[in-house]
Specification:
Strand order of the largest sheet: 4-5-7-6
CATH architecture of the largest domain: 2-Layer Sandwich
CATH topology of the largest domain: Muramoyl-pentapeptide Carboxypeptidase, domain 2
Number of domains: 2
Largest sheet: 4 strands, antiparallel
Helix content: 40-55%
Number of helices: 9
Distance between the termini: 17 Å
Number of strands: 7
Radius of gyration: 23 Å
Oligomer: single chain
Structural class: alpha+beta
Shape: elongated
């Protein structure tokens, strides 16, 4: 699981940048080219003034939708070869925005890694998925705990928000208003909800102490997991041992 997640605001800003017709046209043009393109090439292709093309191309760079490289187009090097040209090409950054938030990339990583590990070990894919999800959540919690300087429960809320769970405090519990794995959970409820329970159990253990435990608590239009006050002597759900 990545140590840092791209902010929701940055992703929305990047997508919004493409709503401007000229900027979208330049992005589409650069994206279709087999090699990086110059400002002059982009301006000529879209019949734009060079300054206009430069402004929008650099805005796309600011939004991490394009990357810049500097190359000499003459093929020469050394004195007299001229200055390298500023060239643009599509960045390797993936920009995905969904409302409400969905995290099928996270589910895909957990499921695919568990399948590979199960094939190698000969163990039950479901058991491996639960264990891997728990460990991934625990690593996420430990990383957030080290990086933060706040109460562990506040850190839990921040991490849950960043991953699309939309946590809401209800008395001493935390309800998760959104399921980041919604479509998968609708089709494969037992598998995905079990994975989610292990992931969030690991998160809480990585952040410990939070005074919370994760429980399956299916509620319409909510995530299947709810975080509730930990009972004395409570332990992690089956299959989530460290």
């Amino acid at each position: 699981m990545p140590a840092a997640e791209e902010s929701r605001e940055a992703r929305i800003s990047a997508v919004a940048a493409l709503d401007e017709p000229t900027r979208r046209g330049l992005y589409d043009y650069v994206m279709r080219q087999p090699a990086p393109v110059s400002r002059d090439e982009a301006a000529a292709a879209l019949k734009l003034p060079r300054t206009t093309a430069a402004f929008h191309l650099d805005r796309l760079v600011d939004e991490a939708l394009l990357d810049v490289v500097y190359q000499r187009r003459t093929g020469r090097s050394g004195p007299g070869a001229g200055r390298p040209s500023k060239l643009y090409h599509r960045s390797q950054c993936d920009v995905v925005v969904s409302l409400p938030e969905r995290r099928y990339d996270l589910a895909g990583r957990l499921l695919s890694t568990a399948l590979i590990q199960a094939e190698r070990s000969g163990n039950s894919p479901r058991a491996v998925l639960d264990q891997h999800s728990y460990q991934a959540g625990k690593e996420l919690g430990e990383t957030a705990r080290v990086a933060g300087n706040e109460d562990n429960r506040d850190t839990a809320l921040r991490v849950l928000e960043a991953h699309g769970f939309e946590p809401r405090i209800e008395d001493d519990s935390i309800a998760l208003v959104n399921c980041p794995f919604h479509d998968l959970a609708q089709e494969h409820t037992e598998l995905v909800c079990g994975m989610n329970l292990c992931l969030l159990s690991g998160l809480l253990d990585g952040l410990a102490p939070t005074g919370l435990t994760a429980h399956l608590h299916p509620t319409p239009a909510h995530c299947c997991v709810r975080l509730e006050p930990a009972a004395p002597g409570s332990c992690a759900p089956p299959g989530t041992g460290p």
